[in-house]
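Notebook entry, structure prediction.
Reason for the run: the old model in the group folder had no record of what sequence produced it. Starting over properly, with the input documented here first.
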Amino acid sequence: MSELICVGAIAGAFGVHGEVRLKSFTADPAAIADYAPLCTEDGAQVYDLQLSREIKGGFAARLTGIRTKEKADALKGLRLFAPRDRLPSLPDDEFYHADLIGLHVVDTGGTELGRVKAVHNHGASDLLELTVPGQSNTVLLPFTMDVVPTIDLTAGRIVADPPEGLLD
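New structure, fully documented this time:
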C-alpha cells in the first residue's frame, strides 16, 4: 500500500493574486485542508494549504509560496498528496483508490481478467479501469458489490463477476 495518498489536484489559477483552483478527492471535500501540509508525489515540494472559498468544481485556495497568477498557472495539473497516517481509517468495505491500483482481477472461477490501472468516477459511481492481457484497449468495470464482491488487499487481488459480454 502506498504511503502517500492523492487527495487533490490543481486545476489552474483563480484570479490574479496567486490563488489556485483546487479539486478535492476527499470524501468530505473541505477536509482536504485538515491533511495539510500536502506534497507532490515525489515529496520534493511541500505546501501548506488554506481554502479561501468554495467555487464551482472545488475551492479557491492558497498554497505556500504561490503569490502570482503565473506561479499558480504553472501548477496546473499538479496532484497533491497526504501521508496515509494523516487520513482517517476506513470501514472494511471502503478503500483508498491508491490501494486498488495494481491489484490483479480474477473472475469467480479464478481466471485472470486483468489488472487495475486506474479508478475513475464520472459522477455516478466508481469504475475500475483494467488492463486486459492480450488487449491494447482497457476495459471499465463497474465498482459495485454485485460486480466486485471480493477485495483482498493482503493477497493483492480482486474477485469480479463482470456483466456478460463486457470483456469480449
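Summary: The chain has a mean pLDDT of 91.
The old model has been moved to the deprecated folder.
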